[in-house]
Each structure stands twice: as C-alpha cells, then as structure tokens.
Design goal:
Pfam families: Topoisom_bac, Toprim
CATH architecture of the largest domain: 3-Layer(aba) Sandwich
Distance between the termini: 64 Å
Subcellular location: Cytoplasm
Number of strands: 33
Main location: cytoplasm
CATH topology of the largest domain: Rossmann fold
Radius of gyration: 33 Å
Number of domains: 6
CATH class of the largest domain: Alpha Beta
Protein name: Reverse gyrase
Strand order of the largest sheet: 3-4-2-5-11-1-12
Number of helices: 28
Structural class: alpha/beta
Family: In the N-terminal section; belongs to the DEAD box helicase family. DDVD subfamily.
C-alpha cells in the first residue's frame, strides 16, 4: 500500500540540492544515490551533508546498531544506494522515524553488452526497453521469448551457478546438461542484443528516444530507469500502522531528463495512480505537515495512548464478489494476501489501510426459483405473488442445475453440489467481521445476487453495504470503499420480475412446443422467438437473392464489383473471358478533401459485432473472454449500453497518445452524457504488445492466464478506444464512374491520407488514384452470393439493441439458446442459418401465440422492466398482468 507524495526538482548541482533539502526538512530522511554512481558517490554525498553540520552515516550493509542510532535520532539521515538489493531500500520498517526519501539523481541502471558482465536480470530489462525499436513482429516475438526463457531458467539457478556460467563463457568452456542449456541461452541472448545495437537505425532510435540513453562506442552501455529500485526505496517512507498507512514523501533530483521520463512512464505499468509534481516550497511544507502529523500519531500509539479518533478506525469487513478470479485480482492490490479455506471456499485476507478485508466469491447466483411450488415457483397469496427461492444445486457429472430441495441428480444419481455451503461459509466469516460489503457486478443481476447474500447474512452482522465498481482496479476499489451505499431495491425488483417472466413464459411456451413436436429438448421464450423470426426471414430472403458477383481488377489496380442476375455456367464463362479481354473507360473522377472522425468506443453490442467481423469470434466466446479481461482488471465492465467516457478514461487515452505520437493527436471526447455506466475501455495506457511484454517480465501478474484470443480481443477494445480519443483524419475521397462493357459502375474510396489522426491506430483502406481514360482489365474473379447476406451474430445483436429487445447481459445467451436447440446453425463463415426445425417451431409459435411473443409485446415488457428499475411503476402490478397473460397461454391447446 503506497501513500506517497512524489515530487521532482532539477538542479545544476545535485549534491548541493540534497544538502539544501535536508536542512529544510530536518531529520528522518533517507538519501538514495543512483546505482550507476556507485559507492564513491554515496561517500561524497555523506561528506557534503556532514560538512554542513548534519548528523549522517552511510548504510551499505545491514547494521542493526546504525538503525537503532537512526531511530533514536543520533543520525538525522542515512545515505545508500537506490536498488532493490540495497539494505537501505529493503528491510527498514520505521514508520515513526522515516519521513522522506531524497533521490540524488534518477534511480537508473547502466547495462553493458559485454558478455563478461552478462546478468540475466539486466538482459531482461534491456530486452524490454529495446522491444519498442524493432521493426518486425517476428523480432518482437523473439524478444518476448528471450525474456520468458531468461526469467524461467535463471529463476531455477542459485547466484553462484549464474556466476559459474558467466565465468565459463569468459574462459571459453562449454558446460553440459541443464547449466549448459542456460549457458547457450546467455550467449544467444548477448549476441542478439549486440546485433540489435550494432544497427544504425536502432542506435538512432535510442538517441531520439525520450526515455533511453546510449553511452560509449566500442563498448556501448544502455542507461535505463530503475523503477523497482525507486518503488522499493520510496516505500520506506509510507508504512502500515494501527491507524492505516502513513503518509510519505519522495523527492527525485533530476540529473537525466531521459531517465526521469522513463521512470515516470514505467511507474504507470506498476502503479495506476502515480503523479509527479514539481517541487515548490509551499507544496513541500504542506506535504511535510501531513507527514509529521502521521508520525506524531504513530508515536502516541506506540506509547499506548489510544486517541479517541482511532477507536474503530480500521474496520474488518467481508467483501463478497461474484467470481474467484475477481477475488484473486482484488486480493493482490495490497501486497501478498493471506489465504485460507473455509468449508471449501477460498478466502483472501488483506489490509487496505482503512479496512482489513476478507475477500471471497459467491461464484454467481446462490439462489433460484424452485419449480415445484406455487405457479412454477411463485406462490399466489391474497392478490400478490411470492417467489419461492432455494439454493442452487449442480451435478458435476451432467453439468445440470437444479433449484428444488433434492440431494441426488435425477439423471445420473450422483450427489449434487449445493450452493448452500457457500452461504454457510459466508455466515461464518460474517460473524468475525464488523460489516459485510457486497461487491457483485454493477448491474441489476449483480444487485439481485447481492440482495440474496444480504438477506442470508443479515442476522450474522451489524452492517451490510453495497459497493459498486465498474473496473477491477485498485483505484476503483478504493473509491468504492469510500462511497458505500444501500442495496437498490428497485433494481432487485426489476430482476425478480425478469426472472419470474422468464420462468413463466419459458415453462409454458416450452411445454406447448414440447407437446406439439413430442420432443423434450425443445424450448421457447419471449425474446428468443422474435429473434428466431428475424433469422428465419433473412434465411428465406437470402436464398431468394442469389446473384453473380464479378470483381474486376483494372491495370491501375483499382478493384470494382458488378452484380448480375444468376447466369448459366457456359454463358458466365464467356462473359468472364470477354471481360478479361476488354478495355474499360474511366468517365468521371471527382476528388475532395474530407475530414473523417473516429468511431465511438465500444458498447456491448458493438464489441460483439466487431469481434464477430474482425476476429471471427462467436458472441458466447467473446463475452467469456471479455468477462475474464474484466475480472483480471484489464477492461471496464463489459455489459453496457453506454459509450460514455469518464475523466479517468480520457486521461488514460491522453497519456498513451501523448507518449506514442505526441499531444497534437489527442482529442478527448466524452461521447455521451453523464450516467452510471461507461463504455468498454482499457483500465491502463498499455497496448496489447506492451501487455504481453509486461506479463512476460512479471511486472503484471494476473489472476488468470491469458490466451492469444484474450489478447486479440483486448487489442480490439484498446485500439477502438484510443482511436475514439484521437484527432480526426484528413483524407482524399475519390468517386469515379467507369464504363465496363455496357455497364456503368461506380467506385468510391479514400486515396490518400493528408493529415493522420485516429488512422495511426485504425488504418483506413486506400484505393489507387485514377484519372479519366481507357484502362485494360487485369483480372476477373467471380462468386455466387446473395445480395441480402445471411446475418452474423453481431448483426442480430445490433438489431436487438436497435429494436429494444434484450439487454447487454442477455444478448449472447439468447443466440446461444437458439444454437443449442438447433433452431439455427452457423455456417463455416460464421453466418446464421435457420434450420427446418427452427422454421417449423417459429411458424407454430407465430400462428398460435403471436400476441405474446411479438416484437411489440416483447419491447413493451422490456420498457416496463426499465420503468420498474427507475421506480416509476410497481413490479407487483406487472407480475399480476403477466400472470393473467400466462394463464391464457396455459389454457391454450398445443
């Protein structure tokens, strides 16, 4: 947990600046010298401080006596090296004494390419920094592989074994076995790095880089910032104590602009909210007052004087989230968590400073409607309706789910796994803590899961609150913990209504379909029926619209497409031959400069559509991948209708754009009015390539392993979001009319980028520039296809959103159900085709129950559910209306 004010200042004489700052700040300081300056510079700084009358000593080896004297005030400051291995940067835990850290120069490392000085840790740092400069993906992948191999193999070796390998390389001795394999890796990596740095273009890029420096010609040395050293050292100033986390101060005296830029940039990969402010005397005095206030409090607490304001200052709380991945991600925000098992449930324990949290997962819904009581699980009582819930049971063998009070699977006879054990574990933890915090997903379904948990735990705890965060990040969690609220009962009522409606209409309509077709594996639902209807209709119209498509490539490489009616094969071949020998005439050409704006960031439907189109991912898989990305803290909540961008989102984009291309390409946009939800966006300014690299380096450690598909979807989300925050592009648009045989064909496209903007991250397709005149045909391609193509999954979801049917949380489920029931199948090109079964079932439902499953009825009900959420209508009135409607379905003949 880090609570540090980070400041920087520039000075012509670093040592004089150190002396001046220590005189102003007084005792309780740690002075860190960059590793590249070495022990001689440590001594120089200490001597300068001593000459100014400051009680100081160097601390280069662990010495308990020196620390004790420092704690008592016999030494005002200690001076040592800024490195994660330095005894001054690790192992010092004196929250009442250490007030500030001064860095006498930016913490940095000089990395030699001499094989005699080879060290795996330094080679990894250098590889990571050079990755930005290689020109091919193949070389970037090679770098990632070297990093992964060096981390894996060197982690298996002791320090003396690494030294032995380096010595054997110097002596030209070849080692055998595992150590021999590592020796080969060291040599291969060193040769690869030398070859990279021998290239003129790489050396030029390093010199032009705002972050890296290269020194020396014969034996080049790369200077890189030491981020880990800075974090380790500055962390001595901010420690946990009984009142939370003490305030600290870190001041960097900038001796290298490039190293400082690199430090600021790379810190963002480790910490979400890091901000350096330029040192001013006024700000310095303000921060040191806060620092000293905490030190005074710590001293009083150490003396046993408990202040009134510190009674119950740190609360114990149970935080319940939905998934184990989310629980693991949160648990890692504040250091290494303590882990325990309770009734088969994993619980992580951490301290945030203000809370001691026990974090665990409900693993989704715990309760569901029973089937055997009342009317499909809802009991009518005196004009109202009472839903009857029981814990969910699951058969691990059959993967079937049940909610009635049974112990054995009715299909295979195995003992069911009962979610009741989760509730039992939560009750036990609730007894141990001051309060319960519900951190389920930020939507109506998450609210209902939270409400269920709250009802079950109410007798076991004094306080239950809801916290809401739209991204699983440390920043968002801390903000949520500061703003707990009560559970929104209107959202809960809307979800109860949705579940009852889904159960009633599903059971009744499914029963009718099953009886009609004598098949127990069929089902029907209010939303899936109109969606099935669209696919049935499009399948029919698509078959009727088959035409011949001719793609004609001209000698100037312009491609034009012309469509003609279905033609017999012999005639078509003659036409193609005629086209190949023909000359086309470009009649009219019009060109104009146009400004093109970027597309908005993703909402759920747009993400599903683009993932289907660009990555050929099904909607179910896309939602699973997005869920994983959300739970490990890489993207914001993925079930949203909003395209709004928050202030934090705009800052993330601005940081990335400024760093990558310069601030002139940034154009922050909110894209929508203020609301509860936001677009789907990355949570940090880290692109997919950098993310892959940081995972390989071990800088970013996620609660779940990412696959190439996860990274592909992340890349799609990241690029779309960054594009949405970039300047428009100025392009040349061309319109041409071309005479091809007896046809006149129009061609449109962009020919040139005059001024790039968002096109830097989302390139546009360019067509050749043409001029009036005759042009020969170079090639002709032919295919037969419908002019009204079959729907993709993404296109169906767009129609659902446009027509107000379904919600972000149900889009994927509706299509999955249609596919599972074999009402619809996917072609090899991932197009949706209605089957004969699907058409027959739809025709039956339309002819027998149209008024209950029409688009208008479904849209009206969705609107009513929204009004329940907003508190405009009573959910019980809607249930009564539904009940009378369902009774009519029940009485109808199959």
């Amino acid at each position: 947990v880090r609570k540090i004010a980070d400041m920087y200042t520039k000075a012509s004489n670093v040592v004089d600046q150190v002396v001046e700052l220590v005189k102003e700040l007084g005792g309780g300081g740690l002075i860190y010298v960059p590793m590249d300056k070495g022990a001689a510079y440590v001594k120089k700084v200490a001597e300068a401080l001593e000459a100014s009358g400051i009680k100081v000593t160097t601390y280069e080896r662990t010495k308990g006596k020196i620390l004790e004297k420092y704690r008592k005030g016999e030494y005002e400051v200690l001076v040592g090296i800024a490195s994660y291995r330095s005894p001054l940067a690790r192992g010092i835990d004196l929250p009442e004494r250490v007030r500030y850290a001064i860095f006498a120069g930016v913490p940095k490392i000089k990395i030699s390419l001499d094989i005699e000085e080879f060290r795996p840790s330094r080679a990894i740092i250098l590889l990571a920094n050079l990755r930005d400069f290689v020109e091919t993906q193949k070389e970037a992948d090679m770098i990632d592989k070297y990093i992964a191999d060096l981390r894996r193999f060197s982690g298996m070796l002791r320090r003396d074994e690494v030294e032995r390998i380096v010595e054997s390389i110097k002596a030209g001795e070849k080692l055998e076995g595992f150590i021999g394999r590592v020796q080969e890796l060291f040599i291969e990596t060193a040769n690869f790095l030398r070859e990279l740095l021998s290239r003129e273009n790489i050396r030029r890029k390093i010199k032009e880089s705002p972050y890296l420096s290269i020194e020396g010609e014969d034996k080049p040395v790369i200077v890189v910032p030491d981020v880990v050293g800075f974090l380790q050292a500055s962390g001595r100033t901010s420690r946990m104590y009984a009142g939370g986390v003490s305030k600290g101060l870190a001041i960097v005296i900038v001796d290298s602009e490039k190293a400082f830029n690199g430090l600021v940039r790379e810190l963002k990969w480790y910490i979400e909210d890091v901000k350096f402010i330029e040192l001013s005397r006024e700000k310095l005095r303000e921060v040191i007052r806060e620092v000293d206030k905490d030190r005074e409090t710590i001293r009083k607490l150490r003396e046993g004087r408990v202040l009134p304001e510190f009674k119950d200052i740190v609360k114990t709380a149970l935080l319940v989230v939905e998934s184990p991945s989310k629980a693991r991600t949160i648990a890692r925000f504040f250091g290494k968590p303590f882990k325990r098992e309770l009734n088969g449930i994993t619980v992580f324990e951490i301290s945030t400073g203000d809370y001691i949290l026990s974090i665990t997962a409900s693993m989704g819904h715990i309760f569901d409607l029973v089937t055997r009581e009342g009317f499909h699980g809802v009991r009518p009582l005196n004009g109202t309706f009472i839903p009857v819930y029981s814990t969910i049971k699951r058969c691990r063998a059959c993967n079937e789910q049940f909610s009635d009070p049974i112990e054995k699977c009715p299909f295979c006879g195995r003992t069911l796994e009962d979610k009741g054990k989760v509730i039992q574990a939560l009750k036990e933890i609730a007894k141990e803590v001051d309060m319960v915090l519900i951190g389920t997903d930020a939507d109506a379904e998450g609210e209902k899961i939270g409400w269920d948990i709250a009802q079950a735990l109410a007798p076991y705890t004094g306080e239950i609150k809801r916290i809401e965060f739209h991204e699983v990040t440390r920043r968002a969690l801390i903000e949520a913990l500061k703003n707990p609220r009560d559970i929104n009962i209107k959202l809960v009522e809307a979800q109860i209504l949705r579940r009852i409606e889904d159960r009633w209409i599903g059971f009744e309509l499914s029963g009718k379909v099953q009886d009609k077709f004598k098949r127990r594996d069929l089902s029907a639902g209010r939303v899936q029926t109109p969606v099935l209807g669209w696919i049935v209709e499009r399948t029919k119209k698509s078959r009727e619209s088959l035409m011949e498509h001719l793609e004609i490539t001209l000698e100037n490489n312009l491609k034009i497409t012309h469509i003609i009616p279905k033609t017999k094969k012999r005639e078509l071949n003659k036409l193609i031959e005629k086209l190949k020998e023909s000359t086309c005439k470009i009649l009219n050409v019009k060109r104009e400069e146009v400004e093109v704006n970027p597309p908005p960031p993703f909402s759920t439907d747009a993400m599903l559509r683009e993932a289907s189109r660009r990555l050929r991912l099904g909607v179910k898989e896309t939602m699973t991948l997005a869920q994983d990305l959300f739970e490990v803290g890489l993207i914001t909540y993925h079930r949203t209708d909003s395209i709004r961008v928050s202030g934090i989102g705009m800052k993330i984009a601005k940081d990335y754009i400024n760093d990558k291309w310069g601030e002139k390409y940034a154009k922050p946009r909110t894209w929508g009015k203020e609301g509860a939800h936001e677009c789907i966006r990355p949570t940090r300014p880290i692109d997919a390539g950098r993310l892959r690299n940081l995972i390989a380096l071990g800088v970013i450690r996620l609660a779940k392993r990412l696959t190439p598909r996860h990274l592909a979807l992340y890349n799609l989300i990241f690029n779309r979001f960054i594009a949405s925050q970039m300047a428009p592009a100025k392009l040349v648009k061309q319109e041409a009319e071309i005479q091809v045989l007896e046809w006149r064909v129009k061609s449109e496209g962009y020919t040139k980028i005059i001024k790039p903007g968002f096109t830097l991250i989302q390139p546009v397709h360019l067509v050749p520039e043409v001029k009036p005149g005759n042009v020969k045909v170079k090639d002709v391609k032919h295919w037969r296809a419908p002019t009204l193509p079959l729907f993709t999954e993404g296109e169906v979801i767009k129609i659902m959103k446009d027509k107000g049917i379904g919600r972000p949380s149900t889009y994927a489920k509706i299509l999955s159900t249609l596919l599972e029931r074999r009402y619809v199948i996917l072609t090899p090109r991932r197009k949706l085709v209605a089957t004969k079964l699907g058409k027959t079932v739809y025709d039956y439902l339309k002819s027998s129950f149209e008024k209950y499953v029409s688009e208008d009825t479904t849209r009206k009900l969705e609107r009513m559910m929204d009004e329940v959420e907003q508190g405009r209508i009573d959910y019980m009135d809607v249930i009564r209306e539904l009940h009378s409607e369902i009774k009519q379905i029940a009485m109808a003949e199959a």
